[in-house]
Each structure stands twice: as structure tokens, then as C-alpha cells.
């Protein structure tokens, strides 16, 4: 199974050096991380993770992660082999495919809308029943018929703790407390809540309350769905050193929480990438779980900015009323990647920290710390730039003071002409003064492959690399690396030239990419033109000449 995954990645790498994901640095590094994750997932699938729930619980989230964005036409299937039909939930690129779903799960299963894009294939099962107990398998297959068994989750749904036994247990605990002993009470249930907010709000509260008085040496932990520590409270105070760095300075809990039983957490500036299950767990001094509750955080799609491909620039808005000191650091990143789009610190931009594909393409307002306008201007956006961008403000101590997501949608360029025109231009403009040794190539998608339309290496055309049907029919302006005009002229276009084209500019990694959709319509001749063609055809008919020669 691991060998198959390795072959897949190596094949994609060897086919063409241009076939990299977002970039060798921009996304090839991410891709390699995803490949490592893939290998780990394949090994993990040999083990079964166990989840204990109780009848009547609102939901359970069964985790599954896999880099499906790297696959062609991926499909994810959650199944139980002990059922017939075995399908619990199925998701394809077009959406859920539930016609073969087992009726036991009708209306009770769901996945994140962007599961196949993010690779978060976790299944949400609601209104838990005793019959839901079993082993759930998360499998992925691609359009070539290859299949991976990613992970198994063993779900055990138990009967609720009987009310009479619960009352007896509470009575015994009270007697123990009265005797001066520590509380060793444990709730045998997990409650579920759901909180929904807009991306960019100043804060959200994740509720967690208990009527049981907790011991003074209890430890409270909040974790996200990836088991990263959101907040820790112990020995009467917060423990920021145990927090995952992305949450530092962004969480708060109420005072005297062990006395009041209100363990709710306030999370500042929640982002789209932080959506998912958050758990609140209380431990005794000995490490026993005294209470556990789960809150499902739903963060709505961030603010959307939509532009046409070809515009000179687009602004990603981010404004704050928070007073910013001169020593703060402002970062724009691609989310959830760690790719730096723009960095501002110590009163000026830091281009040396920027990824190469964004150098010279980004700007921020002057005096941004005074005005609070942290908006980013991105020059010459293309469809390759469509993604979710995160603006984060850090204090000198690296605490997060503010965070906001903006989703950029760039429409594909569409060009439409009629067959018979002399030429058509596929537009692509970006900033100039790119390295002289950068490679440029235009390709066309045919099926699952990309074929070469035009290639430039060391500022020279490479006709031998072209598909024969394009030789002598393509042209790009000279000095394109200086001017930034990579537009392709295609001569005598025909209906067969209709399709998806893309241009890549590469120097060690992918610097620029643009997609153009070309449609060449078949020319319809009118009657007069048809008659004229016939007349011209008859006037040049060789038959009469042959007859004259024979006389």
C-alpha cells in the first residue's frame, strides 16, 4: 500500500517538471508534508481508534485525514463491513452520493462542505443509537480505480448511566466529601453543543458548565479536533506555556471557575481553519477524567472578494480598532499553509521573508499602525491565487492580537472566437523584471494530461518541445520576462483548439500560473457565401480543360 502511494507521487513528479503543486517551496514542500502524512495514514489504518459515546448524545465526530486534493476525481467512503449495504456515507467531487447509504444512517451523517479540498474527511454522526456501535472504515479511491484504506474507528455506544445509580453515586460522593476525602466523581456521558459564528468576529464563547463542585486541584484542558492545546487551567491559574502557539493571547476563562462550574472558554478572532470539535476535559490530581464535554465550532466561510482574472490589482480588506504598538508584527499568509504572502515589522515591509511567488506583487498602506488599515493589495491576481488568506497581528512576545480570514475568488479568463479568424490571443500579464533564466511554457489539458503548446527556456523558443499540431502556429512577444506580458498568440484556431490552457513561469519553483479557457466556435456559412463558393469551385473545375486537351 505504501509502495503504491510512492509510485503515485514519483510519477506525478517525473511526468513534467512543470507539474508541481502550488510551488516547490510554495506547495511542493506542503505536498511533501502531505505525502508524509499519507504514508503515516496508511500505517495508522492498521490500528483501530476507539470512541466511547452514549445513547442519545447529539453527535460524534470520527476523524479521518487524507490529501485528497492531490488526487484526480477522488471519492471518500465511510462504511461498516458488518452491515448490508455497508455504506454509511459517500462523498464525491459533485457532492454527497447517498443512494447506496444504509437506511440506519439516513439523515444522520454529514461531512465538511470542502472536505475533498482540505483533506479533512471526518464524519459527523448525529442522534446516536445503540445500533451505531461498530467499526467504521474511512476509504479513499481516485479516478484511476486506486483505493486506500485510511483509518478505522471503533465506535461504542453505551446505555445511559441509570438515573437511580447516578443519584446513588452522587449521594456516596457527598458522604465522601463530608468525610474530608477528595472527589472522585466521574460523569459517564459526553454532552455536545454547536456554536456558529462568522469568520472575523472579535470573539466567540465555547460553553461548558457543570453543576458539580470541582476539587481545587482539578485541571481543565481545552483541545481542538487535532488534539492541539487551546487552553489549560491548573492550580488556580492559566498555564499559557502549555498552549499551542496559535492560541497564545487569544483565550480566556472566567475567574473562580472551579467554584461556579462555568468552564466556558472565550476564543478571540476565530478563523475558518479553527472550525471543528473542541473538547473541555476536567482531570483530577491523579489524572482521572471527572468531566468531558464537546463543542462543535462552526466558523462560516470568511469574507469573499471576487475579481476577474486580468485585473491589475485586488485588495484583501483587514481593518482593526485595536491600538497597535510600533513593535507589532503583521503577517499575511495562505491558510492553512505556512506560506508568507507579506510581512510588516519594525515600521517597514520585510520582503526577504516573503515567498518568491509574491515578491513585487504585494503592498500595504503606509502608517497602517496608526490607521488600523492592514488591507493587502495583490497585483495581477490569477486563478492560481484563489485561496483563503489570513491576516495576523502579533505582539512582540508573539501573542496573537488579531486575526482575520479573507477568501479570494479569481474567475478564469475566458476567450471565445469563431473558427476562421486569423489568430486569437490567450492573455496573461504580470509584473515584469523576472529572472532571465526563468522557464515559460503554455500547455493544454487533454484528458488527465497536459500537452506542450509553447515553451521558452533561456529566453528562446523550444519548437522541438511543442506538440506537432502547434508548431508554427504560436507566438509570444519578445522581452516577456522584462515586460511581464506572457500572452500567447495562437494562429488559425480551429474547433479542435477549444479547451483549457495554462501558462507556468518557473525558476526552481512555480513563480506564476494562469489558466485560460478557449472556445472556438464552428463557423456557419450563410447561403450567399455557399453559392459563391460553389461558383468559384465550378469555374476552376479541371474537367473542361482536360476535355479541351484531348481534342
From TrEMBL:
Residues 531-551 are annotated as: Disordered. It comes from the Eukaryota. GO terms for cellular component: external side of plasma membrane. It is found in: Cell membrane. It is a single-pass type I membrane protein. This is Butyrophilin-like protein 2. The keyword Transmembrane applies. The chain crosses the membrane at residues 164-185. Keywords: Cell membrane, Disulfide bond, Glycoprotein, Immunoglobulin domain, Membrane, Receptor, Signal, Transmembrane, Transmembrane helix. Its main location: membrane.
Amino acid at each position: 500500500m505504501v509502495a503504491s502511494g510512492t509510485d503515485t507521487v514519483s510519477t506525478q513528479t517525473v511526468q513534467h517538471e512543470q507539474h508541481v503543486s502550488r510551488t516547490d517551496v510554495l506547495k511542493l514542500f506542503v505536498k511533501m508534508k502531505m505525502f508524509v502524512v499519507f504514508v503515516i495514514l496508511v500505517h495508522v489504518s492498521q490500528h483501530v481508534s476507539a470512541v466511547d459515546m452514549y445513547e442519545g448524545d447529539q453527535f460524534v465526530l470520527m476523524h479521518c485525514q487524507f490529501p485528497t486534493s492531490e488526487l484526480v476525481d477522488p471519492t471518500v467512503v465511510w462504511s461498516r463491513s458488518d452491515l448490508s449495504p455497508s455504506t454509511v456515507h459517500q462523498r464525491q467531487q459533485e457532492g454527497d452520493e447517498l443512494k447506496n447509504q444504509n437506511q440506519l444512517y439516513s439523515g444522520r451523517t454529514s461531512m465538511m462542505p470542502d472536505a475533498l479540498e482540505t483533506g479533512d474527511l471526518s464524519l459527523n454522526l448525529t442522534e446516536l443509537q445503540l445500533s451505531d456501535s461498530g467499526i467504521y472504515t474511512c476509504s479513499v479511491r481516485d479516478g484511476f480505480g486506486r483505493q486506500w484504506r485510511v483509518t478505522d474507528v471503533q465506535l461504542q455506544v453505551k446505555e445511559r448511566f441509570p438515573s437511580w445509580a447516578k443519584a446513588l453515586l452522587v449521594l456516596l460522593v457527598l458522604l465522601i466529601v463530608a468525610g474530608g476525602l477528595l472527589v472522585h466523581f466521574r460523569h459517564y456521558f459526553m454532552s455536545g453543543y454547536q456554536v456558529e459564528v462568522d469568520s472575523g468576529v472579535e470573539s466567540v464563547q465555547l460553553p461548558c458548565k457543570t453543576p458539580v463542585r470541582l476539587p481545587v486541584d482539578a485541571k481543565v484542558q481545552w483541545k481542538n479536533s487535532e488534539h492541539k492545546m487551546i487552553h489549560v487551567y491548573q492550580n488556580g491559574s492559566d498555564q499559557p506555556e502549555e498552549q499551542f502557539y496559535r492560541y497564545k493571547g487569544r483565550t480566556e476563562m472566567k475567574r473562580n471557575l472551579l467554584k461556579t462550574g462555568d468552564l466556558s472558554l472565550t476564543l478571540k478572532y476565530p478563523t475558518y481553519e479553527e472550525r471543528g470539535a473542541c473538547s473541555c476535559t476536567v482531570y483530577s490530581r491523579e489524572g482521572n477524567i471527572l468531566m468531558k464535554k464537546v463543542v462543535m465550532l462552526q466558523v462560516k466561510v470568511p469574507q469573499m472578494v471576487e475579481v476577474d482574472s486580468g485585473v491589475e490589482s485586488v485588495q484583501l480588506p483587514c481593518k482593526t480598532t485595536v491600538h497597535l504598538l510600533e513593535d507589532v508584527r503583521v503577517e499575511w499568509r495562505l491558510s492553512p499553509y505556512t506560506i508568507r504572502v507579506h510581512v510588516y515589522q519594525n515600521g517597514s515591509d520585510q520582503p526577504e521573508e516573503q515567498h518568491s511567488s509574491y515578491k513585487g506583487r504585494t503592498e500595504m498602506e503606509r502608517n497602517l499602525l496608526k490607521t488600523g488599515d492592514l488591507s493587502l493589495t495583490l497585483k495581477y491576481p490569477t486563478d492560481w491565487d484563489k485561496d483563503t488568506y489570513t491576516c495576523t497581528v502579533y505582539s512582540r512576545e508573539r501573542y496573537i492580537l488579531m486575526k482575520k480570514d479573507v477568501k479570494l475568488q479569481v474567475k478564469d479568463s475566458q476567450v471565445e472566437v469563431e473558427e476562421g479568424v486569423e489568430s486569437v490571443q490567450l492573455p496573461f500579464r504580470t509584473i515584469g523584471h523576472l529572472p532571465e533564466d526563468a522557464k515559460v511554457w503554455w500547455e493544454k489539458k487533454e484528458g488527465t494530461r497536459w500537452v506542450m503548446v509553447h515553451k521558452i527556456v533561456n529566453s528562446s523558443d523550444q519548437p522541438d518541445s511543442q506538440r506537432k499540431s502547434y508548431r508554427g502556429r504560436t507566438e509570444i512577444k519578445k522581452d516577456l520576462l522584462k515586460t511581464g506580458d506572457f500572452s500567447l498568440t495562437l494562429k488559425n484556431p480551429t474547433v479542435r483548439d477549444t479547451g483549457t490552457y495554462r501558462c507556468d513561469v518557473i525558476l526552481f519553483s512555480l513563480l506564476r500560473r494562469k489558466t485560460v479557457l478557449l472556445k472556438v466556435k464552428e463557423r456557419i456559412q450563410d447561403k450567399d457565401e455557399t453559392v459563391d463558393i460553389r461558383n468559384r469551385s465550378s469555374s476552376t473545375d479541371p474537367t473542361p480543360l482536360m476535355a479541351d486537351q484531348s481534342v
